[in-house]
Amino acid sequence: MKTTIVQTPVYKDQTVTIGAWLSNKRSSGKIAFLQLRDGTGFIQGVVVKNDVSEETFQLAKNMTQESSMYITGKIVEDTRSPFGFEMQVSDIELIHQASDYPITPKEHGTEFLMDHRHLWLRSKKQHAVMKIRNEIIRSTYQFFNDNGYVKIDPPILTGSSAEGTTELFHTKYFDEEAYLSQSGQLYMEAAAMAFGKVFSFGPTFRAEKSKTRRHLIEFWMIEPEIAFVNHEESLEIQEQYVSFVVQSVLDNCKLELDVLERDTTKLEKIKAPFPRISYDEAVDLLKEKGFDDIEWGEDFGAPHETAIAESFDKPVFITNYPAEIKAFYMKPVPGRPEVVLCADMIAPEGYGEIIGGSQRIDDLELMEERYEQHGLTGPAYKWYLELRKFGSVPHSGFGLGLERTVAWLSGVDHVRETIPFPRLLNRLYP
Predict the structure, then answer these.
(1) Which of 21, 73, 24 is nearest to 52 (CA)?
(2) Main location per UniProt (predicted)?
(3) Contact, 48 vs 56, CB < 8 A?
(4) Which CATH code fits 117-417?
């Protein structure tokens, strides 16, 4: 019976064959212990000299790291194993003997590992992070599909900017100027006017010369947009969504969280509702915490977000930022036009902003004023203005950064480990 490692518990006390790679091994006299992986998981294969042919035992002892094979054996329960099972090997068919594999069990520097990212992905911890990433994506689709959203794919090449052109990658689109998308939001607003509740999931690009542990040049965003929904209703959707994703990871990634030594007691507290503080209250809180130089009207940096998050054990919404530091399309707070109906969701444990969202301006005259203030002239933005001309309605939306969310739930320090092939300020390889 040919199967995979993740399916082996189904075949307890039965003999199966697995296509696998050797991630590590050790031997003690007449027993060889093979650490096997097949992409679905990891399992130990035990080769006892007296139970196999001499050829098989010598093969087990001489196989090199990352050699590939078909390996056959009996699946038995093993309470000492994190996986709970091991294989009692009876036969090995070598497919390819690897040589001089560069990533050995010893310590390697980060730059070395990043240069070998195509191989580093095979390691147990990187495998666990990617499985958690996959679960976040899977549960995202489940949440929005179950709640009646339609997935719409916005373009990656655009003729306009969602939030200003200073941090965009410029390119030529035949004889026109174009940009790599920094957000699909404007297009999702158009889609919401057609389908009511929509979401997108795709790559976005920021030409931001940042080297912090929270920044990537290319990253993935989940961007829902909902018609007939106000700001407060949007916040409720956001906290329900994040709570659902966290619970899905806790339920379906127990082994991966254990591999990463993640403190899951902190994640178990992540249930809606989440606390909310206004930008005004956040400034006061920062001053109380010793940030004397922060002034009203300034944006918050990573140290500020971390300090605010320390006061809560759940994600916290910071609401109603000054209009001057937010995007042109955000609706002003009624009676207080200097601030807007927006919120950033700040993750606990120092992981920073994972969601930014707002209620959008739905009034044509006000949007025309914003166009004038921000110099949004020319045909590239004409279609976006027309959304306010033809059946405008109150609507809200938000964007969740996948990699920051993966970092938070996995407990890893840097977002470069949360995407298969990171694009950083000085890295376009591999």
Answers:
(1) 73
(2) cytoplasm
(3) no
(4) 3.30.930.10
